[in-house]
Specification:
Blueprint (H helix, E strand, L loop, with lengths): L17 H9 L32 H4 L10 H4 L17 E4 L16 E4 L11 H7 L8 E3 L8 E6 L9 H7 L9 E7 L3 E7 L4 E3 L8 E3 L2 E3 L1 E5 L6 E7 L1 E2 L22 E11 L5 H7 L1 E4 L8 E13 L5 E13 L2
Parallel strand pairs: 2-3, 2-16
Antiparallel strand pairs: 1-4, 4-13, 5-11, 5-15, 6-9, 6-13, 7-8, 10-11, 12-13, 14-15, 15-16
Length: 338
Amino acid sequence: MAFLDNSGDIILDAVLTDVGRRRMAQGNFKITKFALGDDEIDYATYNKDHPSGSAYADLEILQTPVLEAFTQANATINYGLVSYSRNDLLYLPTIAMNSKMTELVAFTGSQNVIYLADDSKFDTNSVSTGDLLIASTRAGETSVLRSGNTTRRYVFVETGINNNEIPPTATNQLTYIMNVGLNDRQFTVGYDNRFINRVFGPAPSAEFSNADQQSAPRLTANLIRATAGAASPAIENYSEATVTGVISRLYKPASGDDTSTNYSNIAGARGAMTMLNFAMRDDLTATDYQKHGRINQSLGWSGGKLFDYIDTIVYVKGISTNITLQLPIRITRVVSTS
């Protein structure tokens, strides 16, 4: 890993991914798609009032150090640029994990990971992995999923225009989301099939709405097994599942303060939402945890509990919007107590 010398003009720095090199060796390499990213760039450094004139407004952006290209597809671009066929879009959507509905959903919070607990493993007091994680002061219930569970906590993902200048009304949803093809009726979920073998998403009857636009919203979701897809075309060892996207009916009240922002991470017109849980492979062994993760870890809290874990990333992508969210998942099982 190194930075490129950007003292001059960099025209193109490209490398083949691991998949690309393998296909070249097999004699069937062909470029059909490409992706662009600007992860290193902070556009807030654009200075339209630069003392040397407008020609220098983007100087700091152009001089930002840029990393050399990586060969791993899932390490190269974390927040890729997307293309849209329409040229009349005034606002582009974003995707976010809901952290407001804490009584129902799991989010990273201060942990920076979501624990996927193997509840088939217990300590010597017959306490499951999930209960041990929830009871700890460090993890807490809002960071814990239970592997394969369809009725308890889940990850709640939202899309929409994250701009409070476009209030979350039904009219704005129709204008800026529905009428311009930015409504995600489905999401693809990319997961490492060495560690996860099932994805669960919402049934079509799922709902996120505030009918009277005043009280707390109604959030219902019976999770069902998602439609499994083929192997990921870009990331080795990854598979892709498809889950349902449901229109968010959480709107700004007709009068008074916008209380809907108490329950949503999208400040403006809202689009779709989906709910997710995952099932880890039940054939993971201590060798797998040792090879791909860490074993016999205290996870930083007292009590003598030891855990094995594997860190992985799940990618959630809106099929219509092409926007992607990365979920940091820590597959965890308790192994011993003292």
